[in-house]
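Good morning N.,

You mentioned wanting to compare the apo and holo forms, so I went ahead and generated the holo version with zinc ion. This is what I fed in:
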Amino acid sequence: MKLFCVLGIESSCDDTGAAVIRSDGTILGESLASQHAIHEQFGGVVPGLAKDAHEENIDRVINTALQRANMSMEDVDAIGVTVGPGLEICLRVGCNRGRELAMKYNKPFVGVHHLEAHILMARIPPVKHDNNGGEQSATYDEIVQSSGDRAMDFPFLALLVSGGHCQILKCLGIGRYAIVGGTLDDSLGEAFDKIARLLGLPVGGGGGPAVEALSLDGDPHSVALPIPMQRRKDCDFSYAGLKTSVRMAAERMCVERGVESPERLRYEDKANIAASFQHVAFRHVEIRLGRAMELVEKEDGIRTLAVVGGVAANKELRRRLNALCSDRIEPWEMLVPPPRLCTDQGAMSAWAAVERLSVGSSDLAEDQEVFARYP
Ligand code: KG4
Ligand code: ZN
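and this is what came out, ligand included:
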């Protein structure tokens, strides 16, 4: 099998990422400039500032990824760039640079769908450490013929839980997805971010890790919170109501303790709130996902689950979904990318491009646009 290498670029939100990946899944070099420090004081991503930071960092990030891979642009066989969904002015920074490079060096180009890229990370083969094949250049025909081993085959079910999205999808093939469930309001990542803000935890780059860490010191059954949408027997999510319940519980606690705002609560109280929120938020996932699994198992014989997106980095979620899969009468196989590859970074654009190219699909660099919304 002829190996090829793809340079991937990601700039859809507040991280500027680039990576060079080989078609067998080996990440040869990567670089990520996070903007956490810039947005921290605003409690969320400020698009204009994000765009400026992308512009400032993009060339350095790309060059660092290439250097770490010990490669120059000439050695790269193709370029993959996130083109949506995301913040339009941010997407444009990465897309423009990717297009320029593809045209200047005459390389095949792939405009990557960010959600597909999250999902496909579950198919990346476990990292191998040999370093042969990095230098050779493949022709486009060789690239198309070289689709190799993947960690899992289509079809499979995917739970995509990130800051921007909260979906259950039936994944049938590259570019072929059917939505089984979505969110009626907030995404799971957004709920984590809002709880982090309520409790005065650091939110730069997402509050999820802070809420997860605090939960370890709390009792998940100490604060009673209703599980969302108990009466709706479908696979959709809703997190807005839970967020309100958490805020009301925190405010009641403030009155009891005589403090003026949830940020001022004692560490133990905050930990109990965080742990209880996380417990119910994941219970909601288990119920909706369990129903979707039932459905696709019966209809399509699917028994593989991919858990992807930023929240998939959460250890407690991984543990609970692992149990959900193994406790079934006919156990499911579950695949989750390493935590570092769950959140946004350049390797996802690179790997999605490897997958697209492997089935003979690519785009015209000169015509590529960006899409804030990208169904
Ligand atoms: O995939 P991602 O990096 O960006 C989007 O495409 O949205 O996901 C970011 C989201 C944020 O909401 C962040 O709080 C959440 O993922 N997240 C976590 C954890 N790590 C990141 N949520 C819970 N636990 C974590 N460990
Ligand atoms: Zn993402």
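The first strand starts at residue 5 and ends at 10.

Happy to go through it together on a call whenever suits you.

Best,
F.
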